Amino acid sequence: MATYQDLDGATVLITGGANGIGEAMVRAFTKQGSTVFFCDFDGDAGSRLAKSTGATFTQVDLRNEQEVVDWVANAVFECGNIQVLINNAAKDPRIRIEEQTAEVWDDLMATNLRPHMLTAREAVPHMPEGASIVNFSSIVFELGMQPMTAYVSTKSAIQGFSRSLGRELGPKRIRVNSISPGWVMTERQKREFVTDETLVRLQNELQSIPDLIEPADVAEVALFLASRVSNVITGQEIVADHGWVHS
Known about the structure:
Blueprint: E1 11-15, H1 20-31, E2 35-40, H2 43-53, E3 56-59, H3 65-79, E4 84-87, H4 102-112, H5 114-123, E5 132-136, H6 140-143, H7 149-169, E6 175-181, H8 187-192, H9 196-206, H10 215-226, E7 237-240
Parallel strand pairs: 1-2, 1-4, 2-3, 4-5, 5-6, 6-7
Helix pairs in contact: 1-10, 3-5, 4-7
């Protein structure tokens, strides 16, 4: 793992940090010496990770605006400012359009998209010049994967949100970028979706580089975008997929 000196002592906020890519980012930033605050709906996993890393965990329902506001406010109270905000939390249900309900659709928007606005709104007043916001999208937007219209819609909206916010915050010298991972081998993906046949096709047909993507690989991209070594990059989508989409 590369070392970024400016992340040593930086205050970093991560949503959805208890498992998968989020967990890998909590571990990566704490290894950089960052002061990490992360939230998740999974209280047990979050508490275990906090204990093993020294990061500060808060159980938060991101659909609840006041809980989000309080979480950001606590980090500001503890540290005074925020150098890095990472919006990672999301759900990815598979629902065919004829089975989609307005209630489920609205709930996914409230989980996957609205928290990006809420955390940015609350954090930006406390972010100094050189700060960085990293929002997680997905290559599903590029591929139009099905049956995931609701999920794909949230991830495409995150692209637009990031580009517009990057332009808005540019004069403050706060950067905003998005990461679109490919198929990352989290424990949940391996448990629920990965088969020997899909792995063979992924490695031999879909990706340019025939290696599996691990959560720690994506965490490395987040470190780069969070650090000031990437200070000329804003409003961009970084596709981290071993060359699936744009090969």
